Structure formats: C-alpha cells, structure tokens
Amino acid sequence: MKLEDEVKTFIVQALACFDPPSAVVKAVKEEFDLAVSPQQVESYDPNKRAGRNLSDEYRQIFTATRETFLRDTAAIGVSHRAVRLRTLQRLAERAEKMGNVALVASLLEQVARECGDAFTNKRQTEVSGKDGQPLLAGGIAVTFVDGPGRPS
Predict the structure, then answer these.
(1) Are 97 and 132 members of one domain?
(2) Tens of pLDDT along 129-146?
(3) Rounded to whole angstroms, how far apart are CA atoms 9 and 58?
(4) Same domain (yes/no): 68, 22
(5) pLDDT tens digits for 26-45?
(6) Are both 12 and 59 inside the same structural domain?
(7) In terms of Cα–Cα distance, which of 70, 83, 76 is closest to 18?
C-alpha cells in the first residue's frame, strides 16, 4: 500500500524519537486509521537494513528530528532526578497509606538507587597511594569521578 507523505513523515519522526515499530503501527492506526505492518514501518528507519533505500528527503527529516529530540530531552520532566524523587515520594506515601509494604520497600530501594547515582553514567574510581594510603595532591586526598566517554 502506498502511503501519503504525511503518513511517511509521521512514521519517520516517530522512529527518530526511538519509538519501536510496534508502537508506531498503533500510532498510525490511531492517527490516520491506517493499518501498516511493523516491517513497513521499519523501512522508514535509515538505521535499519530495511531502511537502506530510504530517500534523502526522509533521511534528512529523520536526522533533524533525532537531533532535536536528543537536544530537547531536558524539557522532559522525568529526565530530572528531582522530579523522579518527588514522584517516588508521592508513590511511596500513597503505598504506605494503602498498607502495601512490599511496594513501599521497592520504592524506597528505587529512591536509594536514584540518590546513589545508580542511573547515571558517573562512577567513582578510588585511587590509592603507597601502601593503600590516600593519594594526595597538595596535601588533599584525591578522588576521580568519571563521566560518559572519559577514561578513568
């Protein structure tokens, strides 16, 4: 089935935002009342083998949408630790009122992991000096913190 340009653009933009083909199939059905297959959707992803013949026009749309999406994730509330912690607090309070001890414990574990940088790309590397003593720089103990893409 030949798709209209509006539908093709919709599919390309959804894929550029990391939506899986199955979700795009549902979205196309809801938005345009069209039935498309996951294989048909994959043919609009230039990063997949099925999308190797995608036109330059749709490749450019994909690239521009992907760049915008990645740049604008800061506008998504749950991408911020404070928002996630507040949400977890509300959920824990609600679960506690309901007497759901297992859920409260699970939520508290999640909070502890959030606070302990379990969901970041940072890791702390301890470096020690002679005989396990702290490494000193100008008389101050040194700890190295790695970020994404930086060697420890």
Answers:
(1) no
(2) 667 666 555 556 555 555
(3) 7
(4) yes
(5) 999 999 999 999 999 999 99
(6) yes
(7) 70
